[in-house]
Every structure is written in C-alpha cells, then in structure tokens.
Design goal:
Strand order of the largest sheet: 6-7-8-3-9-10-12-11
Radius of gyration: 22 Å
Number of helices: 13
Largest sheet: 8 strands, mixed
CATH superfamily of the largest domain: P-loop containing nucleotide triphosphate hydrolases
Helix content: 25-40%
Shape: globular
Distance between the termini: 45 Å
Bound molecules: iron/sulfur cluster, magnesium ion
Number of strands: 12
CATH architecture of the largest domain: 3-Layer(aba) Sandwich
CATH topology of the largest domain: Rossmann fold
CATH class of the largest domain: Alpha Beta
Order of helices and strands: EEEHEEHEHHHHHEHEHEEHHHEEH
Strand content: 15-25%
C-alpha cells in the first residue's frame, strides 16, 4: 500500500518555567493508505502530542522543534501524481493547513464536549465543517450532514441534527463527532482515546462503527489508546511509546505473541487474560509496576531503566539504547537486542 504519512525524528517540546518537557522526543513512523496503526502507552507518554503535532494544533508553550511530517496527498483520479506536503513547514493557521485539517486529516477526541461547541446544534457544526472544505450550498451540506448522521447510526438523523450537544448521550455525541470527522472523507482519521469515556456497550458499538466505516470509506486510522484490548481488536500495526519515544513497533500479532521490549512485556502482563470478558475496558495500563518519572527529570541512559527488571547496570543507566531491527519490520529500542545482534551474526564454530 502506498505511503500516506511519514513522521521522521519529530520533536515537540514544551517550554515551561520549571524546565523543558520533551513530550515527543525523536519519533519516527509511517502510516500507509487504509492502514490502522495503534499508538499505546501510559498517559503522558506523548501519544496525544504526536497526534496534535500532525494536526498542527499543539498549543504554546508547546512547539514542534524539529523533524519532518510528510503527508502524501492521495492523488486525484485524473491521473496527476499526489503531492507530498511537509506539514511542519505550513503555518498552523494558514489556509493550506486549515484545508488539510478536518479535510484530509481529521481527528476525534476522547471527550466530544471539548471539541463540539455547546452553543451550536451538532448539525450546524457538521454543516460548517463540510462547507469549509467543499464547494456546496448550505442545503446540500445539510443533506450531507444528515447522510453522515445516518451512516454513524444516529437515531432519527433528521431530528438529531438540530439538537445541541448537551441534549445527546455520550455515545451519540461521539457518533456526531465521528460524523463531523468523516464528513469530508479524510484519508487519515486520528482517533485519540475515542471510547475511553464510554461504557462497555457503547464502546463496543463505536468500535464496530469505526471498523465498518473504515471498510466502507477506506481511510487510514491512527488509533491512540491505553487499552490493549482495543489495540487487539482495531489495529494492524502498533507503536508503543514511553516518555516521548517509541520503544517498540510491531505488527499486532508480533506485539501480542512476540513482544520484545521489557516495557511492552510489562504492559501485556498488566492485562487480563486475552479473550476474557473484562478485556474490552478493564485493560487499563495504570496498574503497572512503578511510576513514570517526572517529565523534567528523564533518567539518563534508557529512560525506562528505573522500572526495568532486565536492566543491565553500567549500560542501561548510562547509554541511550539504539533502535534495533529484530526482523519482520519489528523495531525495538533496548540494549538487550543491541548487544545480542552482533553475537547472532557470528558464525557458530563450536560444533564444527
Ligand atoms: Fe531495560 Fe536496558 Fe532495555 Fe532499557 S535498555 S528496556 S533498561 S534492558
Ligand atoms: Mg492523551
């Protein structure tokens, strides 16, 4: 599948009085057209800031410091090649970025109330989003909005469009936000914990809805969650983040059946048995051993070393581990594999 998004060595820092928080600290990954990529990690690991950087909605004192975010615009059907747009070079408030944001890349958040305006009906907000990105009349935009509301399973869509957010349930608000996000047929949907605030039943419905819509519309999804059960259900590839960095990247199968990084293994241990009934929602990562160090005081060497049971003294607490490829596209940032690699390629002589 063709490339859609390439993030390379992205650094997004927050400049606070107390010091600099390296919220995203050299993150690189790619998303292909139609692919679903999960991003997991505990709160504060930089998942949301990575997403907000792609959308260029990082608020001061946060700032993209360096790196590249290349968006491969899906080529028009007239045979012209698709452009590659360097998002970090665009003015966040300028028209080109505003056209990408909400048009080609859109986002749904955990709590729709923070992104839906309380003083406008949900329908008007979807209509406004449609009219910002497409040359259609207001009547046509309303027709499209009702069409999207039907698609996302809103009951009585022609009536629901005229409701205010507070008149809808949490699940219905999340459906409204998904309708708004998908109304312009984006090639990438970023979903930041879209079901975390919902009850189990509603969560299952929303996840099913997202899978159905993806099958129908073919967009790629960057799915941010701290719920590994959701990752197992929703994604093909997974990125594990810890303290602003990617510590492991793998296919969903390798992540669950052949995890490499000690942090990934810890995350997996913290979830109830696969397939157990609680997996859907009770799979929170909060319960794992130790706590994330304070963001101003990133430990020297491997940032995970104070919590790691495999820590190699004199190595892990001194030297930053390199990113190591362990085959099958799986990448891990850990000394255990870095030091194993040269040994692995030395030909065996003992048995000869
Ligand atoms: Fe643990 Fe060392 Fe690997 Fe870090 S580099 S995860 S401390 S073994
Ligand atoms: Mg977050």
């Amino acid at each position: 599948r063709p490339l859609l998004l390439e993030v390379e060595d992205l650094k997004t820092y927050f400049y606070l009085d107390e010091g600099v928080v390296r919220a995203v600290d050299g993150v690189s990954f790619t998303i292909r057209r139609g692919q679903t990529v999960g991003v997991v990690g505990e709160s504060g690991c930089g998942k949301s800031i990575t997403a907000r950087s792609i959308m260029q909605i990082v608020r001061p004192p946060g700032k993209i410091v360096s790196g590249s975010i290349r968006f491969h615009r899906v080529p028009p059907s007239n045979g012209n090649p698709g452009e590659i747009i360097e998002i970090t070079k665009l003015d966040p408030m300028g028209k080109p970025m505003r056209m990408i944001r909400g048009g080609e890349i859109s986002m749904v958040f955990q709590e729709p109330m923070t992104s839906l305006s309380p003083v406008h009906t949900v329908g008007d907000q979807v209509i406004e989003a449609i009219m910002l990105h497409q040359l259609v009349s207001k009547e046509e935009a309303r027709r499209l909005a009702i069409h999207m509301f039907t698609k996302v399973g809103m009951q009585q869509p022609t009536r629901t469009v005229d409701r205010y957010p507070h008149q809808l349930s949490g699940g219905m608000r999340q459906r409204a936000m998904i309708a708004m996000a998908l109304s312009c047929n984006p090639s990438l949907l970023i979903a930041d914990e879209p079901t975390t605030a919902l009850d189990v039943t509603t969560e299952a419905q929303i996840l099913q809805l997202m899978r159905d819509l993806q099958r129908e519309l073919g967009m790629a999804i960057m799915f941010i969650t701290h719920n590994l059960g959701v990752v197992a259900q929703m994604t093909e590839a997974v990125i594990v983040m810890y303290m602003g960095r990617i510590v492991e990247q793998a296919t969903v199968d390798n992540l669950f059946y052949a995890p490499k990084h000690p942090y990934t293994r810890l995350l997996l241990k913290s979830i109830p048995k696969m397939g157990s009934k609680a997996m859907g929602t009770a799979t929170r990562l909060e319960s794992i051993r130790g706590t994330v160090p304070h963001p101003y005081a990133i430990p020297k060497g491997c940032p995970f070393h104070p919590r790691c049971s495999d820590m190699i003294p004199g190595v892990c607490d001194v030297v930053d581990p390199p990113v190591v490829s362990v085959g099958d596209g799986q990448m891990v940032r850990c000394h255990l594999y870095a030091s194993a690699q040269p040994r692995d390629i030395i030909p065996l002589t003992a048995d000869q």
